[in-house]
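Standup notes
- HV: blocked on the assembly model, inputs below
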Amino acid sequence: MKLPEDCRYSKQHEWIRVEGDGGTVGITDHAQKELGDVVFVELPEIGHVFAADEVLANVESVKAVSEVYAPVAGEVVAVNSNLGSSPELVNEDPYGEAWFVRIRLVDSSDLDNLLTADQYRKYVEEEESTG
Amino acid sequence: MKFTRTGRHLNLNEGLIFERSSPGRTGYDLPRLDVPAVDLGAALGADNLREPIPGFPEVSEVDVVRHFTRLASWNYSIDAGMYPLGSCTMKYNPRLNERVAGMKGLAESHPLSPESLVQGSLEVLRLLADCLAEISGMDAVSLQPPAGASGELTGILMIRACLSSRGNPRRIVLIPDSAHGTNPASAVIAGYEVQSLKSDSRGCIDLNGLERAMNDEVAALMLTNPNTLGIFEQDIVSIARIVHDRGGLVYMDGANLNALMGITRPGSFGVDVLHINLHKTFSTPHGGGGPGAGPVAVKQVLEPFLPVPTVERREDRSYFLNWDRPDSIGKVKAFYGNFLTLVRALAYILANGAEGLREASQVAILNANYIKHHLRDVYDLPYDEPILHEVVFSSRRQTRNNLTVMDLAKRLMDYGFHPPTVAFPLIVQGALMIEPSETESRQELDQFIHAMRCIAEEADTDPDLLKQAPHSTRVSRLDEVQAARRPVLRWKPDEADEQDS
Amino acid sequence: MRYLSTSAEQQALMLKALGLHSLEDLLTSIPEAIRLRSPLDLPPALSEPELLARFGELEAGNAPRILSFLGAGVNQHFIPLVIDSLCSRGEFLTSYTPYQAEISQGTLQAVFEFQTFICQLTGMEISNASMYDGSSALAEAVLMARRISRRGRVLMARTVHPEYRSVVETVTQHQDLTIQTVDHGDDGRLDPAELEARLGEDVGALVVQSPNFLGNLESLDILADLCRQKGVLLVVNIAELLSLGIVRSPGSVGADIVCGEAQSMGISPGYGGPHLGFLATREKFVRNLPGRLVGQTVDRHGQRGYVLTLATREQHIRREKATSNICTNQNLTALMVTLFCSLLGRKGLRELAIQNVAKVQYGLAALRKLPVDVLFEGPRFNEFVLQLNRPYREVEEKFHSAGVVPGLPLARFDPRLENALLVSITETKSRAEIDRLVELVEAAA
């Protein structure tokens, strides 16, 4: 399981990489593996403001739709339009080219609720052993 | 043209009808125009005219017959073999049904004809409605919904209208987690929130769970009986009482009515409204995915809310369409339903009579139990309860070698069978939902059982054989990921052709 | 019973294998208290000859050999025999929904061809695999426009088929939608000036029908311009698909959603069904399009093949979040339309459409010479409104006793049209039959 150290993770399998008062959000390597071949990503509009844990995007594989939640509250300042034409990027490069949105954080203390790479790894392992 | 493959299908090299086109041909000759030709620009307005449609094919009648006969040879069908599709009830489609639906006087009758000129069509509607009311034990029937899902919506809209007339439409519809996906979708379109009910260890509705969920905000319980595991809800009378006691209504998805004909009736166990899939229980053909028909049958309490018009009879014995029904939910389909499908269902009921229908249900139950008995030592049976017309196995034991239930299903094609319903109901991991229906012979059942047992063995000894299956069909497994990532949903003329035209 | 394949003897053997004695032993899970104690009260079972005779009686209840000028969305056209012959093949008739693509390529490819035909006819980029009928297609189009526009008000022309309007009303009544009716102008068509005033910011869609219920073609290009200016989706309903053999496609003038009824093309009137709804739109709205879709792809060996695709929009996956509760198309009637388009082809379809225009013009010219009115003069395909000098019900019997149904009395749909009939003259009517209609109208006028 690939887990960049410079990201924070949510229990719903999103990552956020913080730069200044903004952050880039995507879904984790574990999440893309669970989904299988991604065929479509539905992204929000620029300017949309989300509360933490609100539905931010939808990811579709051939036979399932999964919701992607905002790991922290924020306003969308950019969306990755490449995912429209190349949804396979989510499977190929989940932490790089397949970023979903960039947001401006509303409250940086939201980040305290997220997991570090180590914590997330443990969380996933536990989830798998009980599931 | 390159001949790449030969095989058991008539011709594997048939392209699209558009690719057969060459200019100047037609497959249908029109009578010579016997009135003066017109100036189209003057009649329609020059701006309103179009040129001949680019890419529209030009083929002969022979071309059309060849093309579609070849396409036909690539289809599996009930005429060719068994469809053990759980909850879909693929039974034999009698040819007699087709003959009567093709009778000129019925097929060509116009829905807006004066009633005095279409008494025959109206009698068909009334007769079928009466038969369905008798079979279901309900008080009144609307034949208007064109399919099961439309019947669901109609039923829930009637529940909503009924509760509204009592002062409060309420907010929630309860749906067991084993239900068909259309149930929640229909409830939402009728303006309700869906609350899922967890099944108990028998795969049935949990009475305690229902007690807890049932309150003044619940409009209805939507259940399927026998449920999607093929199990009859033994507590059905208590279930209905719990719902009714708190002012709710009971909706039954009639998908599995094929198990009950002449044995018990939804009207006797507390159901207020159900839809009936004529393309399942009453043998009308699926036609590769429709048209079906989804009549709704109701108890007296919901009768005022039936869609308009209803078909009624005057004192002079003539039939008429009654539009004067102030409490009706309105119309759910233009005109009166998929009439020619209704004709077929009526033919089936009249061919069977009471005894025949009961026997059909009983033999459907026997066939399902026979399959269960002969496969239960090989396939896992997560809910080992008495079943009626269908049985749900889990493929757990067979999918240990990195196989999926779909691999098993695809392999069945090589044995000459359509796969069962797989991955449904959702409460069973790797579900294989098998419903043979009453029309299958014992020989056919034995062959199916044999195939399923062979596949179970192959799953252990040669999992790759299953992974790559099917091996005997015109195409092998298709790339669904590519189809969804880069949708190609229509043919387009290539550039060269366009310049031609 | 001839539809069962197990003899009593075999049933006994099967029961024995299960350790049971009778079929009743299989029913123990059904509580005694709710078992049916007596046989169902149904007519006695009929053999094949008896059943044919019974349906012969029912058929005879419909008046035979009526010369009918009824249309109104259920149109009388020639149906090539090849259609019935091919649709009766068991491989099409008795196959299931093509979820298992490898053994359903015939159905899937035919649907792909159907989708292409609908795109070609409507001038749209994509089409679904069909809907129940024109009325349900329109209801789904309205819900779709609501999802795309996120605006809650819909303007609907009063000249949209009244049966469709009532279905839309029923199906969408709990969907946070307000549907407002726009009346037609004196010429039986929408008045762009009046519309402009009503197309506000909160309007999501304008729904029109062309040819409309009164038989007239709407000025779709003007309406499309108006909608574009106001950011409103233009939904065009076509209840007479054959008109698109000669009339400019709604797609070419800028419609956003085109839906309608394809019964005209190879499907018998059948007392109202099964018919065939279609729904087509722009590629960018594909995720909002309800209903099944067939897409092209390749198999493991790179061969071209077809599958149901984009299933994630549908109810079996999204359940309560699905784009629609509909889980079927009308495959067999879609095949009829596909066959019709294939047979008629590029030239035949156009010729057929032109014949309709010619026949209607011939009838109109003769009727104009009589002391009756033809209302709403405008461009029309194969229908028009005829105004008699008295309420139709007063002369109805005269027509019936002559074996003629001259059209649809419109009084039921609009009290202003008490004396009016909607008359449809298609290619199926010979010159002599049209003359007969004119004669009777003259006698009744």
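- HV (later): unblocked. The interface with chain C takes residues 39-40, 42, 60-65 of chain A (CB under 8 Å). Chain A has four helices and nine strands.
- Next: hand off to the docking folks.
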